[in-house]
Amino acid sequence: MAAGKGFPGFPEGKLELTPVPTLFFYDLLPQIDHLGELKLTIYAFWALSQREGAYRYLSRNELIGDQLLMDGFVSPGIKAEELLDEALERAVARGTFISVSGSFSGGTDQLYFLNSEKGRSAVAAIEAGDWLPADDHPIALVRQRPNIFTLYEQNIGPLTPIIAERLRGAESEYPAYWIEEAIKISVENNVRKWRYIEAILEDWRRRGKDEREDRGDTEKARRRYIEGQFADFWDA
User: I want to staple 174 with a disulfide (CB 3.0 to 4.6 A). Which of 102, 155, 178, 205 is the partner?
Assistant: First the structure.
């Protein structure tokens, strides 16, 4: 197996959490002996927690449409959809999920409910004709961009009330990717000062970020941010 790109670690600060039943760890987890099934089961806890309403479910079409999930089902010579279907079949056979197929508001699909009291009630309601799944907005994993406050704390320094106010101002004035790139430049040049970052942003707004004469010239761009109007920031 080829080595992955590695995990950089969890950032500082408060992280979003996903509820997982304790029963999973001492009863279900020891039984799972298939990597795809394990990935799918853990994903399902997250995805179902994103749903709202009395009955929560996942659909096969929805799962296939989640690119980050499908990226985890990779094996030479085997389609990702086939690996997903195998994981779904194993989870249903184990009793983790209950599956229902049919034509719903979103078209023909296979639905999966957690084998819980609510999940069993949902399946019973469908079979009795008392409830049909709504055409919900799809759930998908998205790589979240770190917010401006997290970026500052991780790369520049402690967040003070004054700095927080300036960050909020910058957030309303500049695109998020400008701020991220300006912070990256400050780190590369080892000038970890908000005023330096702010000067870069102001320069881009005045000159045009993508219209600068040093565009495409990495060394010339680097010198630009350590010379001229930026030289003062190099003082202790």
Answer: 178
**Residue 108, strand partner residues:** 103
- Cα(16)–Cα(2) distance, rounded to whole angstroms? 30
User: CATH 1.10.10.10 region(s) of the chain?
Assistant: 22-127
Closest CA to 131 of 149, 113, 151: 113
**What type of residue is 118?**
K
28 or 106, higher pLDDT: 28
Helices (H), 95-229: 117-127, 148-155, 161-173, 176-188, 194-207, 218-224
Among residues 146, 142, 16, the alpha carbon closest in space to that of 68 is found at 142
Of 136-145, 173-182, 204-213, least confident by mean pLDDT is: 136-145
Q: Assess contact for 28 and 96: CB atoms under 8 A.
A: yes
pLDDT at 150: 77
DSSP secondary structure letter of residue 78 = B
Phi, psi of 48 (to 5 degrees): -65, -30
pLDDT of residue 222: 52
Task: Please tell me the predicted confidence (pLDDT) of residue 226.
Answer: 58
Report CA 194 to chain centroid distance, whole Å.
Answer: 27
